[in-house]
Design brief:
Its EC number is 2.7.13.3. It is an enzyme of class 2 (transferase). It is built from eight helices and 14 strands. With 453 residues, it is of the alpha+beta class. The protein has three domains: 160 residues, Beta-Lactamase; 75 residues; 142 residues, Heat Shock Protein 90. The protein is rod-shaped.
Length: 453
């Protein structure tokens, strides 16, 4: 299921959407609670001001309240709205000097909180199974020119209405956030389908290429996908070119064999010719040479695709050990100066062919020493093979690498081997350099391969 890119994006978007809506819901819930609490506070503060408007103190400083209160709920027992006037004692104790009729049959705990005149204290307190909002207002009441009394007006409101209002809000919030989330999820899926449509077009175009209906990815793609489509077009073109080269090589092979076959047929047609055996031998040898060369050319058509890095040291050691046995009469000293971790993006068969040709050539001409070095220089990997033989003159260096369409045009002694090395290196966008070895005095052949990112 998670192998689908669309499923991954939808799942990631769903998780982000849930987190976003959850945080949004939490923020809205906190904001609503703060707003509702502030509404309760304003309501209780208005009740305090209403009580202050009717409160009186007699000549002895006793609180006098009218029979009718500003808020009718204060006259109904258990209405959920309560009021008291508290007279703090000198020992920081407190006692109600007046209570509303709504407190009939109910007692409320009182925790003394020192308040200056005009100071307000608002909080939510527990009261049995329910809760109460409480607001206290400190006042200094002057009931004679020389006498005053500290009082605290205490009004309370049941939080049942607040809890019901909060529950209603949360229910609506969950409903609408759920609806919004569902809509956003559908929109997200539609946006993903629209955004992934270019990839679906690429897939469809690739199927058309495979069916032979078109030759390349066409149309206009988003610029983020252009490197992908360009690389795919290059890959398709490279594969098409390689197939064409293979077909050309096979056609060349068929054409090249016509002449030897014609010679053999002519010789067979004249059985009295004394040199029949010699002619057949020469022509079959020529045919074998042509087949080998054309098969090598056909093998070149398989290069240029995707490649994995290949370690250089291990195959180099195997080739060196094998050639040491072949040239055991020389007692050659092989010096392999190659980092065991060094790698090159090349097919293993091509690497073995390169190393085999280069080292075999060096062993043929070396007197006693062959040295191989490999290192990364700037933006390319350089592999050099040196020997202490007679070397290759500057005039002959270009000639030994020249090879025509026919295999017999290769220079004897070096021809096919070094020409094939050149062709393989060029197939990997590299180059072959020939010069004199500054250390050993013989020839030095250097393969330079670009390091592609």
């Amino acid at each position: 299921m998670l192998n689908s890119l669309k499923t991954r994006l939808v799942l990631a978007g769903l998780l982000i959407l849930i987190a976003f809506l959850g945080l949004t819901g939490l923020a809205l819930d906190q904001a609503f609670q703060a707003s509702a609490r502030e509404g309760v506070r304003a309501k209780l503060q208005a009740q305090v001001y209403g009580l202050l408007g009717v409160l009186e103190l007699d000549a002895d400083g006793r609180v006098q309240m009218p029979d009718q209160y500003p808020d009718q709920r204060l006259q109904q027992p258990g209405s959920g709205s309560y009021a008291q006037v508290i007279a703090p004692g000198t020992d920081q104790s407190a006692a109600p000097v007046w209570s509303s009729r709504s407190l009939l049959g109910r007692e409320l705990d009182y925790r003394h909180i020192p308040l200056d005149s005009g100071q307000i204290h608002f909080e939510r307190i527990a009261a049995g199974r329910d809760g109460l909002f409480e607001l206290r207002f400190g006042v200094v009441w002057e009931y004679s020119p020389r006498e005053s009394r500290d009082l605290v007006l205490r009004v309370l409101e049941s939080d049942a209405a607040f809890r019901d209002q909060l529950w209603q809000f949360r229910r609506s919030l969950v409903l609408w956030l759920g609806v919004a989330g569902a809509i956003l999820l559908v929109v997200q899926v539609l946006v993903l389908q629209w955004g992934l449509r270019p990839l679906q077009r690429i897939s469809a175009d690739l199927r058309r290429i495979h069916a032979g209906e078109t030759s390349a990815l066409g149309g206009v793609y988003p610029h983020e996908l252009r490197p992908l489509t360009d690389n795919l077009n290059d890959f398709v073109q490279a594969e098409r070119t390689q197939r064409q080269r293979y077909r050309d090589a096979m056609a060349d092979l068929a054409h090249s064999l016509k002449t030897p076959l014609a010679v053999i047929r002519g010789a067979v047609a004249q059985p009295q010719a004394a040199d029949l055996k010699q002619v057949i031998g020469e022509q079959t040898a020529r045919m074998q040479e042509i087949v080998d060369y054309q098969l090598q050319r056909a093998a070149m058509a398989g290069r240029g695709g995707l490649r994995e890095p290949v370690n250089l040291r291990a195959p180099l050691q195997r080739v060196a050990d094998s050639l040491a046995k072949v040239h055991a009469d020389k007692g050659l000293d092989f010096g392999l100066e190659v980092d065991p971790e060094l790698q090159l993006a090349i097919e293993s068969g091509d690497l073995m062919e390169l190393l085999g040709n280069l080292l075999d050539n060096a062993c043929k001409w070396a007197a006693s020493r062959v040295r191989v070095q490999a290192a990364v220089d700037s933006d390319e990997l350089r592999l050099s093979v040196e020997d202490d033989g007679p070397g290759i003159s500057a005039a002959d260096r270009a000639g030994i690498l020249r090879r025509g369409v026919r295999a017999d045009e290769s220079t004897p002694g070096h021809g096919i081997g070094l020409a094939m090395v050149r062709d393989i290196v060029q197939a990997y966008d590299g180059r072959l350099e020939i010069d004199a070895s500054p250390a050993l005095g013989g020839a030095r052949l250097v393969l330079a391969f670009p390091l592609k990112g």
